[in-house]
Write a structure and sequence with these properties.
The protein is mainly alpha-helical. The protein has a single domain, classed as Up-down Bundle (Rhopdopsin 7-helix transmembrane proteins), CATH 1.20.1070.10. The protein is 76% helix and 3% strand. It is built from 11 helices and 3 strands, in the order αβααβαααβααααα. The protein has a 3-stranded mixed β-sheet. The radius of gyration is 21 Å and the shape is globular.
Amino acid sequence: MEKENATLLTELILTGLTYEPQWQIPLFLLFLVIYLLTIMGNLGLIALIWNDCQLHIPMYLFLGNLAFVDAWLSSTVSPKMLVNFFAKSKMIPLSECMTQFFSFAISVTTECFLLATMAYDRYVAICKPLLYPVIMSNALCIQLILLSFLGGLLHAIIHSSFLLRLTFCNSIIVHHFYCDIIPLFKISCTDPSINYLIVFIFSGSIQVFTILTVLVSYTLVLFTILKKKSLHGIRKAFSTCGAHLLSVSLYYGPLLYMYVRPRSAQADDQDMMDSLFYTIIIPVLNPMIYSLRNKKVIDSLRKMLKRNP
């Protein structure tokens, strides 16, 4: 009878970020502004790259796709979170919850692969500058981007498929502001041990692979820079790579803590803070991180503003 009732469950409740009524309006306004800035910043960066022929090179092609994924990730999480600040009922249909997680998993995983691809691109550009046009051809760039999205799609399919084996009867309250996989495991009345193992194996492998790609690429870049012993070259290389390293560091820290740490160490409030960082904060920071110290992007923005004051 318990199993039968569990399979009839069609709705869950998202608790959201706060239970305190006095914080609802300030937090709503704060995250609304952040979301609007995220969309304007990332879509503006895409438009800038699209309209300037000088930015039609691999580095900016990858950056444009990263901006698209950041806007996608934020749009997967933020609208529902904003609505729930004032919604009388915080119910979410189980089908919508699964769809939200599926979209979230694609975007987060794709961003991991894109960050690794961008690190490889900088390695080739700095360590093998003469061969760069040959190695990083348009065909290879498109293939790497497609593989990044395909990897995100396959990773989302794997976890969503294993989610379908779970039933929810212990509780319908999800202590989170969006449908993430770990909070769903916690309210499952089916043993989620296999699901935890799948998360550890696949999410851990993807994060380790992409982090190693970034570390190896930038280690080789560092050795190449030090060999040149040129102050101008060192400044230029660090200016180019520094933004990417900052973005990678900010992104992977909370992600590793969320999905690869021991299960017993997980706390609901800490999980939400970590998730808030890489789903809300990072997408709004990335356009600024990559644009403010990038001379080509700034010059392109100036030219566009002169054409369209």
